Amino acid sequence: MEALFPKDDNYLIFTVHQSQYGVSHVKVVSVLDMPQLTVIPKMPMEMRGVIPFREGSVPLFDLRVAFGSKSRLQETAELIETMALRKQDHINWLNKLKDEVMGDKPITVQTNPHLCVFGKWYDNFTSDNTNLKNYMNRIDEPHKQIHGVAIEAEKLLKSGRIGEAHEVVHNAEKGTLARLIGLFDGIESVVREYLLEYAIVFDVEGQLFAIAVDDINLFCKLDHIESPLPSGVVSSENDLVQALGLYQEEGHAEGKDVLLLDIARLLTQTDLSGDDAGSNDTVVAV
Predict the structure, then answer these.
(1) Does residue 279 register a pLDDT over 70?
(2) How far apart are CA 110 and CA 89, in angstroms?
(3) Which of 50, 2, 52, 57 is nearest to 24 (CA)?
(4) pLDDT tens per residue across span 29-76
(5) Domain identity same for 190 and 252
(6) According to a count of CB atoms within 10 Å of the terminal CB, is the N or C end of the chain lower?
(7) Domain presence at residue 4
């Protein structure tokens, strides 16, 4: 095990699903922006397909899937779908409010922004992507404001100021709701631009393959390596993680833990016999 994780080696640290992992630089051939993928039929779920590399192609493994999580592709698609559904929720919400205000009916729409479907989701939303977090933060204010319209309209109706109540709802439709819808619509371009992936290409005993990761952090030496892995550190059944490292990041007083991978195990754990994963004779490109 010591040979797998030399203490004087440099390690490539990267992020997968908000956790940091590391591999010895010895087996790393290249780090790429994610190239175009060609899907191979009937491959294991953790093998996404093949990507072009040099004069041929190499199999691409999805570490998220290998660790039992959603792929970045699925996560992105679900985020876009969620925002589209929640946009329509708020269009329907304001239409209902308009009907209640114009018809002098009791206000029954949800007035608490934390209790609508989007609010419950938003309050629990997390991301390790700074650009996405900053964009999502922009939604908070107009989302609270649009729910506040119902409270303001109800107060005006109760005080007999019906015309003002109508005007408040009308202004909200043209102003705050339009702004909120624009933010919901903009999420697709944000995730397409910022939720990128990288491919790390490895050479293990002459066999080339790549893994998809969320972000590349740094190359560095580790201050400490604990091997074998302490019990209870990783809950996943996957045994790619074989050691625990500690490194010092510039500007941080405390060291950071990194899970060290025996990346060669991807090949021994995955049955690629159904197709030639390195072939160029594939037919489904995405």
Answers:
(1) no
(2) 11
(3) 2
(4) 999 999 999 988 888 888 999 999 998 999 999 999 988 888 998 999
(5) no
(6) C
(7) no
In a domain, 81, yes or no: yes
Question: Where are the strands (E) in 117-188, listed by range?
Answer: none
What is the residue range of 141's domain?
Answer: 72-194
- Percent with pLDDT over 70 in the chain: 91
Q: What kind and span of H or E run contains 198?
A: strand 198-204
Share above pLDDT 90 across residues of the chain, in percent, rounded to a whole number: 63
Helix (H) or strand (E) run with residue 58 in it: strand 56-62
Mean pLDDT within 175-197: 94
Question: Are 51 and 186 in the same domain?
Answer: no
Q: pLDDT tens for residues 104-159?
A: 899 999 999 999 999 999 999 988 788 999 999 999 999 999 999 999 999 999 99
Closest CA to 80 of 227, 215, 205, 195: 195
What distance in Å separates the CA atoms of residue 153 and residue 169, rounded to the nearest whole number?
A: 7
pLDDT score, position 253: 73
- Say how far apart CA 94 and CA 87 lie, in whole Å: 11
Separation in Å, CA 110 to CA 16, 41, 88, 114, 135: 37, 47, 15, 9, 24
pLDDT at 278 over 50: no
β-pair partners for 16: 19
Query: In angstroms, rounded to a whole number, what is the distance separating the alpha carbons of residues 77 and 69?
Result: 14
User: Which helix (H) or strand (E) covers residue 133, if one does?
Assistant: helix 130-158
